[in-house]
């Protein structure tokens, strides 16, 4: 069944493929090629939503991405998506859509009572001036009410079942926008042999050419020329055409983000297809052909359903075969309004009159309109409309020579079309950090000085009309191809006939005779900002348009000022009595239109968002009943409880057994980086505080890495395998950061060095064997390595075999006991672990986890970067001056260490803390104070970094960063806790075996 407002023929919809959809539970027909907006209009549905603040009835304003009113929810369950523009939702069979921000129904919304609120109650900045008392009422009463009565859609509650993907792409020329200028630019660049990507937000390439009726290009209709051009581009193997692809952001070095919608237009999408694909495009050259947005007029009640942009009505008639009304009044200050009037009249609509705001109506459009028998009234404005849920009439006013408006006739109509001129879409150019220039004659901002390798063409550059846009597009495409390294010339401009070129325009509030305090003339339809809101902001002290924007919310949220920015700026400019450039321009921020979280996330969701990494011995530890904790992305054995043990009992047992005999620990998560090359030692000298040139192969050294500010960034044991090769270990969480830091310096600062870096974290399983009997456990298993104390002293490494497997054996300790770290290929990790475990049972070996590891290292005063450091700690603060090569000429961070603020005596320094009551355990992160009850506002002296019950010390121990800590040894300080202040004595941070005698047992 044909919808009542569908034209008998014409349009680009496929009338042979009928579709059915529902809106607010009611079923309607449509066709393949419709948008939800065009299908609703075809069925006579103009009321599509309620406004944000006042809940006023709202209808379709536009036909594209600039739509501020028709925000709908589409889908069901996990596929429900709120706040989609009905103008961009492609129709498919079975589509389910609903209006938003209304209750109990769209036709009767009790929230409309907000529109009856006393003047000033909900005006600009009302939340700054009202609801201020009583104290606490804002949070508990006013804010919940406002949030409930204002807003847009409701977020879905169920998980999204679809998947999304990312794609990186490179091209010589990226063209954004596939209207006349964009198609011409792509043709010129591709013709020169350049790799071209052409992206457009619509389902069909052609832009405004698809909405043309009378214009011809080289003797064919404009839409037919667009089809022919697209076919030629598609046949070129160097061209990638992206439809339904919104370029939402322009970033540094010609990096642009594009979201391509792949399945939202399909009733039964292929299950293997992602819903959206994000293209991350790096282009040598960019052509912006993003067009322009028609400006609405700001007159009383200009937001009623049935008030629409003239260009939108033209699109609905010519492209979708839909009459957006029966009787139309065209209100214009631009020649394009006449083109819309002529097209609507040709489609069978009654054009009751054309109200021309300008005094002169003798342009080509006006002449064509009069020739077609349409009434044209110069110096005429619309001063209001009648009707509530749909326009039923419009009141006209005559502008006198003095600028005053006298009331005129009321015209019966169900459609009021606005043609207030065109605002170039400079959002992406602005995002690229290009400098805009103000065109005084046309009172619009245009692209000025570019900051990147781009150029603008067509309407977004202020060039209107098909012929002029084609010429500029060809020139821009040829220039882009030339700058990308190709020999290119601009093709000849096709012969264009029959077009009406946009010219004219109006800025600001339309003059009228009515009391401005009693009417609402909307500037920002999406945020319910009126002309009087803008003027109020100026009266209340706002002078910059950025301040006006935030005070009124004009141009904020998802709209980003597409239809409101220039009108708001003009009204503010008039109220301030300043030219528009002096008032300023708001910032255009990405995204241009909203982007789903799924598109940004891509595959990074669920387990792929936070991957679980398991060590080679994970299954063995799980079988032993280990409790695991998350460390970075790794699952690490936390402790190994036996029957009836809690964590504290298990940890105490593990610690005692390591010190009494031997323990085994999985250290595979430590970061490992291979530094190789003839300049490897010099590279290490520059990156680490320690000297490396004289370290002999087969020896190890503790390495300390600083950032440029002189603060500790990472540490680890580093072994020299050969003159040109180092095995670098990092903290578990620091591995990617350290590798990136190394690569950054190698590629940007140390380009003279011949060094190669390889991450080997996953290649090596690390088995730490610690305790007095460690050597006895390993001696029967190693092959070709003498691990006696004389042959293999502390901080040395050997390469050989263990259990028949190649190994790098380090003699190092993070417990203070005799220790070895067995590095074997990860695939052999569990097998070697089990062999060591079996041998260890002869010596009552215990497996210990990360909690015992922390206790054992704290007993020895060993630091963990990230626990004893907070990003502002220097080597001296940690007592690690010994790790700085005094004779080294330079290293990263060295010069910062002499800054006055980094050598002050009262800097926080690492110390030990012992509680008066040995049984009391401090809380990590607790503050340290000089007195038990410090005066409120007194700065803390520092904080507790680590606190444990120490089996070796037989009491609780703690480490802390305390201001001037080393000078406070022996002093009593206080740690405020929930049950009162705890007295502590400042001590050395080494609580066990201070001379390190157990390393060589």
Shape descriptor reads elongated
Overall tally of domains: 6
Remind me, CATH topology of the largest domain? FAD/NAD(P)-binding domain
Beta strand count? 52
CATH superfamily of the largest domain: FAD/NAD(P)-binding domain
**In whole angstroms, how far apart are the ends?**
94 Å
Profile the largest sheet: 7 strands, mixed
What is the level 1 CATH name of the largest domain? Alpha Beta
Helix fraction, binned, reads 10-25%
Structural class by secondary-structure content? alpha+beta
Mean pLDDT: 94
Query: Which architecture name of the largest domain does CATH use?
Result: 3-Layer(bba) Sandwich
Low-pLDDT segments = none
In what range is the share of β-strand residues? 25-35%
What is the overall number of helices? Answer: 22
Q: Say what oligomer this is.
A: single chain
Provide a short characterization of the protein structure.
The protein has 1001 residues and is of the alpha+beta class.
């Amino acid at each position: 069944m044909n919808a009542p407002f569908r034209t008998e023929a014409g349009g680009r919809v496929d009338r042979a493929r009928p579709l059915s959809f529902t809106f607010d539970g009611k079923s309607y027909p449509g066709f393949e090629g419709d948008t939800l907006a065009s299908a609703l209009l075809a069925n006579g549905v103009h009321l599509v939503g309620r406004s944000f603040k006042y809940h006023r009835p709202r209808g379709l304003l536009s036909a594209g991405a600039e739509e501020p009113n028709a925000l709908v929810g589409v889908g069901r369950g996990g596929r429900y998506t709120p706040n989609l523009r009905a103008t961009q939702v492609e129709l498919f069979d079975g589509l389910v859509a609903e209006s938003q921000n209304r209750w109990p129904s769209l036709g009767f919304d009790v929230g409309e009572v907000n529109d009856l609120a006393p003047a000033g109650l909900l005006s600009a900045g009302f939340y700054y001036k009202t609801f201020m008392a009583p104290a606490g009422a804002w949070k508990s009463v006013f804010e919940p009410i406002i949030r409930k009565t204002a807003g847009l859609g409701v977020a879905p509650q169920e998980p999204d079942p679809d998947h999304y993907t990312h794609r990186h792409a490179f091209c010589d020329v990226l063209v954004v926008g596939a209207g006349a200028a964009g198609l011409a630019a792509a043709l010129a660049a591709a013709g020169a042999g350049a790799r071209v990507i052409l992206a457009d937000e619509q389902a069909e390439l052609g832009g405004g050419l698809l909405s043309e009726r009378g214009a011809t290009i080289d003797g064919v209709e404009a839409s037919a020329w667009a089809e022919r051009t697209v076919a030629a581009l598609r046949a070129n193997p160097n061209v990638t055409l992206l439809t339904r692809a919104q370029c939402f952001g322009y970033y540094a070095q010609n990096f642009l983000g594009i979201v391509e919608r792949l399945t939202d237009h399909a009733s039964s999408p292929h299950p293997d297809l992602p819903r959206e694909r994000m293209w991350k495009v790096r282009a040598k050259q960019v052509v912006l052909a993003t067009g322009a947005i028609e400006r609405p007029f700001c007159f009383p009640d200009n937001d009623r359903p049935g008030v629409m942009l003239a260009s939108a009505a033209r699109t609905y008639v010519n492209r979708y075969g839909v009459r957006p009304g029966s009787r139309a009044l065209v209100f214009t200050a631009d020649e394009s309004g006449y083109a819309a009037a002529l097209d609507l009249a040709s489609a069978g609509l009654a054009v009751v009159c054309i109200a021309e705001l300008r005094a002169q109506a003798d342009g080509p459009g006006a002449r064509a309109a009069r020739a077609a028998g349409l009434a044209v009234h110069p110096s005429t404005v619309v001063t209001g409309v009648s009707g509530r849920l749909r326009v039923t009439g419009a009141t006209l006013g005559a502008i006198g020579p003095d600028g005053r408006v006298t009331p005129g006739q009321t015209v019966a109509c169900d459609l009021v079309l606005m043609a207030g001129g065109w605002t170039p879409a400079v959002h992406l150019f602005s995002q690229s950090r290009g400098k805009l220039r103000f065109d005084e004659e046309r009172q619009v901002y245009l692209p000025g000085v570019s900051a990147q390798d781009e150029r603008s063409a067509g309407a977004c550059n202020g060039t209107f009309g098909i012929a002029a846009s084609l010429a500029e597009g060809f020139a821009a495409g040829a220039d882009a191809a030339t700058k990308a390294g190709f020999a290119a010339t601009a093709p000849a401009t096709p012969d264009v006939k029959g077009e009406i070129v946009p010219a004219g325009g109006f800025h600001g509030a339309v003059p009228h005779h009515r009391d401005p305090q009693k009417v609402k003339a909307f500037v920002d339809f999406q945020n319910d900002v009126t002309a009087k809101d803008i003027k109020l902001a100026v009266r209340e002290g706002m002078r910059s348009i950025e301040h006006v924007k935030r005070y009124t919310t004009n141009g904020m949220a998802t709209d980003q000022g597409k239809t409101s920015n220039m009108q708001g700026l003009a009204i503010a400019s008039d109220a301030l009595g300043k030219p528009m450039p002096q008032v300023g321009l708001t910032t255009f921020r990405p995204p241009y239109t909203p982007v789903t979280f799924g598109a940004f996330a891509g595959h990074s969701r669920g387990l792929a968002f936070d991957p679980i990494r398991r060590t080679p011995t994970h299954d063995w530890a799980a079988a032993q009943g280990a409790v695991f904790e998350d460390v970075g992305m790794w699952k690490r054995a936390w402790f190994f409880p036996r029957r009836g043990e809690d964590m504290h009992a298990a940890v105490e047992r593990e610690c005692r057994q390591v010190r009494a005999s031997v323990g085994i620990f999985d250290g595979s998560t430590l970061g490992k980086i291979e530094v190789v090359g003839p300049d490897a030692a010099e590279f290490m000298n520059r990156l680490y505080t320690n000297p490396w040139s004289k370290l002999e192969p087969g020896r190890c050294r503790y390495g300390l890495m600083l950032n440029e500010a002189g603060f500790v960034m990472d540490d680890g044991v580093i072994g020299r395998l050969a003159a040109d090769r180092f095995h670098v270990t990092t903290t578990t969480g620091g591995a990617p950061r350290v590798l990136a830091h190394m690569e950054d310096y190698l590629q940007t600062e140390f380009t003279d060095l011949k060094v190669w870096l390889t991450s080997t974290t996953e290649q090596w399983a690390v088995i730490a064997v610690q305790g007095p009997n460690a050597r006895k456990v390993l001696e029967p298993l190693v092959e070709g390595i003498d691990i006696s104390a004389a042959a293999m002293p502390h901080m040395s490494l050997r390469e050989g075999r263990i259990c028949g497997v190649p190994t790098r054996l380090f003699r190092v300790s993070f417990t203070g006991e005799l220790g070895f770290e067995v590095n074997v290929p990860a695939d052999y990790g569990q097998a070697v672990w089990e062999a060591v475990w079996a041998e260890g049972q002869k010596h009552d070996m215990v497996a210990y986890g990360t909690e015992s590891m922390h206790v054992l290292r704290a007993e020895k005063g060993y630091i963990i970067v990230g626990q004893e450091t907070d990003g502002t700690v220097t080597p001296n603060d940690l007592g690690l001056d010994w790790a700085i090569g005094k004779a080294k000429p330079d290293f990263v961070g060295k010069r910062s260490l002499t800054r006055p603020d980094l050598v002050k005596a009262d800097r926080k320094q690492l110390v030990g803390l012992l509680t008066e009551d040995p049984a009391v355990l401090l809380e990590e992160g607790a503050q340290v104070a000089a007195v038990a009850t410090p005066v409120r506002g007194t700065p803390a002296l520092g904080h507790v970094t680590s606190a444990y019950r120490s089996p070796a010390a037989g009491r609780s121990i703690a480490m802390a960063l305390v201001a001037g800590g080393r000078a406070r040894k022996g002093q009593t300080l206080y740690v405020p806790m929930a049950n009162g202040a705890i007295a502590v004595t400042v001590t050395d941070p080494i609580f066990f075996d201070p001379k390190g005698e157990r390393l060589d047992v």
